[in-house]
Structures are given as structure tokens and as C-alpha cells.
Records
---
Amino acid sequence: MANQYDDDYDYEEEEETQDSSGPANLRKALKKAERERKALEEQLTAVKSNLRERSVKDVLETKGVNSKIAKFIPSDVEAPEQIAAWLDENADVFGFQTNEQSQPTELSQDAITEQRINNSASTGVTPGRDEDLANRIASAQSKEELMQLMGIVGLGRNR
């Protein structure tokens, strides 16, 4: 039973407009689409490869690691974060220290030195004459040096 959407006239018109070479045109279109898809896949593969190489190179440079290690990084490790994590994980195998391993000691030494300089500059007082003399007396190494500082050198020989 036909409904309002079925119209025999429409079906007949579509059949008459198609060529007898319809399947041949479809095969040609399919082959063309497959060639285009293959070319796009090759381009995508090349772009992914270049992007990975660039990411690996950048991460190795930022970590200060020899670029020859790039050939040992697995091909499924692509993102820069993954590459950095892989390098941190395998740092002991290749005999290098990651930035995270080497920086804290350097930063702590620098921080300690800077703090010491800041403290002495801000709280340091230039010693007065009496304090300077007392410091020199306290650090005297011999009896003669002590006597010279106290001004007794001339008195000791005269007696």
C-alpha cells in the first residue's frame, strides 16, 4: 500500500537519468578516493614523524642530554611530557642526571650563599676601633703578635 511519500513517478525518473556506465563511474570515483586517502595518510605519517623528532630534540636540549639518546626512545613515546618522563625514568641507565636531580643542590648552595650575603649586608656593623682591636687580640697566633698588638713590645725589652 502506497503512502503519501511513495510516488512511482519519482522512482522512474531517477532510473532514466542514470547512465548505463554508472558502476564504472563509481569504480573510478572509488579508486580516486582511495588514492587521495593513501596520499593523505602518507602526509600524516610524515608530519607525525617530523613532529616527534622535533619534540625529542627539544626535550633532549632542555634536559641537557646528548642527542644520540634519541634513537633509544621508543616510538610510542611521542608527547614532550612522555619523552621527559621516559628520560627521567631511564637517566641512570644512560649515565646522566636530570635537571630535577641536579638543580636542588645547586639552588640550595646558591640560596645559602645569597642568604649569607644578604644577612651580612643588612645586619653587619663596621667594627669600631675598640672592637677591631679586641678581635685582633682574640685571633693572635703568638705571644709576640699579642704583645705587638697591645703595644708592649717596647716595654718588654727595656726591662
---
Amino acid sequence: MRADKLRRGLSWTLYALALGLAFEGASRIALSNEALLRRVSANDDPSWRLRWIARHGAAGRLQYETDEWHPARGWALKANLRDVPVPGGKALSSNSKGVRGRREHGDEKAAGTTRILVLGDSFTFGEDVGDDETYSHHLERLLPGTEVINLGVHGYGHDQMLIYLREEGVRYRPDVVILGFLTGDMERNVLSFRDYAKPRFVLDGGKLALRNSPVPPPAGLAADEKWRSKFADLLDMLWLRYRWKSGAISEETRQLTLAILDEMKSTIEAAGARPAFAYLPAYGEIDRTDPGMTGQERFFFSYCRRSGIQSMYLRPFFLQKMKEGASLKSYGHWGPLEHRVAAEGIRAYLVDKGLVR
């Protein structure tokens, strides 16, 4: 009797093992098919990681040649770039600290100068425009006696911006810190993989706790991929898709973003600077003529009012430019004109609220 139980137990174990291996094999075949991967992919960690593996894993490199691995932030702009071609016949350069543009910024600012630090994603960085066409560059030109430092990096979430601010931004001893806010960045806050692996915060007892840090280098991450279960990836993708549809992740995204923005405000003020957050209209918002605010705009501006943060509503400046006959890009990254209009709007707010002379 006992021997029969052992044999039945062993048979069930072998059956479960064979079934698991079959599922794993089928999942590996399915997820290695690029067309099928595109169909099942969504905005989740396994999908982003598998797409990166398919495109760049074999070479063990980052998504863009202008980037370098950064253990604290995942990726960063390479230092000392010179006139790297970007779309539209533009050129990209960086200084010795990996900041957009050739200009060097010392820890100490020049006497009588107001120093403005700008945080953001690819819109702030200036994807597809030249060094002298970003809204940070225009803002410095429009405000004599100021020095504007562009810490925007493409693909960043607010979590990476906060880490950048903590580790390097405060060293510049800014007078004003501007956050170029896009609602699309909020979803990046709940990811630990996007353009590449990245750190992320979670709420632990109502406080921010950092996870996935330090970020592993690309070559090592790619080498470890063969040991990852693709069946587990597939289950994770299905589970996360359900959580997105149920609204659970959307609520987590909102709460986590608010906590990150709170910490950003505290960090800025502790450095002796004043926060000024700008809502950057994008993804069809630029030419939206409805006078009422969108749900995303209400979320942002109600938070800024509650938190006592100077907020900047730039959409009216774009609409006014359109009334004057300008043709603006409604989708995709901003062009030179959109950057210039944003700078004009930000300048008007900063001067009107007395944040700059």
C-alpha cells in the first residue's frame, strides 16, 4: 500500500513536471515570435523587457547609442557628445556631466545669476530638436541674468527625475526647479522596465521605498534572460492586463505619483529652491479648444493647489499662437515652434509670480 502511494505520488510529480516543461516550452516559442509578442504586449515590465531583449539583448546595449547605463537611474545621456545627428537634421551635444548642450555648469553659480533647474522626459530633453531649440534654451534667452540647466532625459518617469534631483540636481544649488509634467510619465512610475531596466518606488506604510536598485548592466541582464521563465512572464502579462482593466493599477499610479511629487517638492525646498511645475500639453492637448480642463489637467492642478506649488498652465499660450495663424504639432514630440511657445509661457509665469527678476 505504501509503495503504491509512493508510485502514484512520483507519477503525479513527473506528470506535473512534464506539464510545466510543456507550458514553458510553448511559452518560449510563442514569446520568441515577434508578431505574437506585439499582439500580447502591453504597458508592463515583462512586455518592455522582452521587446528590449528582442531588439538589443544580443548586443547587450541600451536602446539608444547616445545613452549609457546608469546604476541609480537605469540610463543617462552620455557625457561629451558632440553634434550627434538627430531626426530633422538637428544635432545633439552634451557637457562633461551628461547634461544637454555644450555649456558647463559649476556647482557655484555666477554672482547675480538666477539658476533654474529643469526636470522632465523627452519633451524637456528636446527629442528631435537641436540643442538651441529646447524650451530650456529659449527660456534662458528670454530671461537675462538666468542660467537654465536642462536635466531632461528621454523615457524618464517621475521616479527617475526624483533620483536625478536628489543625487545631482541639488548640487547645482538652484533658485527655481521646474518640473515639465506629462501625465504619460505617471504610468512609468509603476514600471521597473521601460526603455531599459529602471528603479521604481513602492508605497510601504505610506512612505516611498526604492526597489530594483542598483540597476544591473545590460550585458549581465541579457545573459540572465535565458534563465527566466517565459511561462511566468506570460502569466504576469495576463495578470497585469487584468489589473489595468480593473483600475487597480490606475489607482496605484495616482497614489504613487502624488507621493513622488511630494518628495520632489520637499527635496527642492530643502535645497533652498522654489518648485514650479508646468503642465506640458501633448498627445492632442495642444489644439484642444474646449475651455474646460481635462481630467488629467484637473488632477495636476488640484494637486499643485493643495501642495502650495506654483503651477503653470501652458495650453492657452499654444491656443493663442494658433489664433495668430501658427500651425502646431498636435501629436508626437514638439518641434522648435512648440518649444519656443512653451518657453514664452513659462517665462510669463515666472516673472508674474516673482520667481525670477
---
Amino acid sequence: MLGCIATRELSYSVIGTSERLPLTFRVFSPFELQEGMVDFAFSKGTAGCTYELDGLPKKYSHTCIGGDLVQALQLAVDVDGHLRMFKKKYEFFFPDGESYFED
């Protein structure tokens, strides 16, 4: 995995509890896919970009695949979309304590 290029510091709590724990969302440099990296056919120029959530009970990492480097990066930086997958179990907060999601 290439170097981290962006982070977002947040906190979270398990729904129904008040304890807030630190959470870091990291995005790593996009990269062009090479043979053997994935188990599907792809065209030259297809790219991946990995993001991770560090701080949850289990570290979570995923690689977004795009048609090129820009699209892969664009998919990976969708912090809101990625955090929504965890909204049934966790509440997320900005560093100032404000709720991350308005709903």
C-alpha cells in the first residue's frame, strides 16, 4: 500500500453508549492495477485507491476500483458514504463534538 495522502480525525460511540473513542479515516495514494493484484479482468489504466478506518474494534480497510487514478481516488474519499455503512452500530462526531450526520 502506498503512503497516506489524507486523513480525517473523528470520534465515534457505539449507539446507546456515551463513551467516545477516536477514529481516523485515512486515504492512501491511488495506484494503477497490475496483473495478479485482483481476480478479474481489467483494462490498462484501471486503478485502485485504498482507504481505512482505524479506531473501530476491528480495523477496516477497502480498496475502491476506478477507471483511472482520479476516479479511484474520488471513490475512496467519499467519507460520508463509507461511514454510512456503519451507522446502524455507531454514531460519528467531529472533533468539536458535533454529530457527523445531521439525520
---
Amino acid sequence: MAQIGYVMLGTNDLARAIAFYDSLLSTLGATHLIESEQGVSWTFGPGSTSLSIVKPYDKRMATVGNGVMVAIGVAHPNDVDRVHARALELGARDEGSPGPRGNSGFYARYFRDLDGNKLNVFCVERCKE
């Protein structure tokens, strides 16, 4: 079975981005998977998709992709609120009011990291059960 192995986001300030994501992702139990001069990858456990923050390989400026977003699934709506609040404490910018989306039980909050990359923390309400 195929799966997405990792997602990479670019940064122009690697040290700042690592500090942001270390603090943010530690609230979800993520740990470093790979570390190099180019960037860091975090894992949420065996078999999970990892998230990487990297300096662009071509040495040009990192830019934000229009329409690109990383969505992090969590177990409970309270986790959504907690992670979003932590992101804002770390300097992220809010990208939309919290709450249900549609009638599918999808609960989400959105923010942009320190480089402007868009992220979402979400839970499908049935995961509370």
C-alpha cells in the first residue's frame, strides 16, 4: 500500500523554524527523525508521515506555495485548540476561526508559521469516541 512518507516546508531561518516546530510539535509527542545542516524532520511515531523543515536545496529563497497546506490530525477537539494556541504563543499568525467545518464532524483551526507556511490542526469528531 502506498502512503505519503513526508511533507517538506521551506524556511529562510532554519534555527528559528526548528525552535518553533520543536516547541509546537512536542505538544503532540513528535521527535526528531532526521537532522542535518539542510533541515530537520519530525516523526509522530512508527509508520507516520513525517514533517520536515528545510533550507531549499537550490539555495534560493524559500517561498510559500499558494494553496499548499499541511494538516495535522489529532485525537480530540481539545487537542486542536491546545496546539493552535501554542502555535500563536510561538508567533504564528491565526488563519481562521476555530470550529466545525461542514456537517461531517470535522473540527479545525488554521495558522501560518513564522515563514508564512499554512498549517491546520484538525479532528474528525468521531475520533473522540
